[in-house]
# Entry
Amino acid sequence: MGAQQPTKKRFDLEGRVVKEAVRNALQDRRKTLTKLIRAFREYRKLADQPLTLRGSEYAHAVQELNKGD
# Structure
């Protein structure tokens, strides 16, 4: 009268669910880092310009950095 062993099918299904969740989390992380890097590059590009040459693009880059998705 031991503990009931999970079937192999259930174990495989749970493994696939976990694998998919990890894959989705890593994809979300990569997308977020890509957005952050893009915003940082835009900010750096615009930060080197004199204030008189900065337009709405500068404000947009700062907003993207502050967004923190």
Notes: Residues 23 and 49 are 40 Å apart (CA to CA). Helices lie at 8-47, 56-67. The two ends are 52 Å apart (CA to CA).
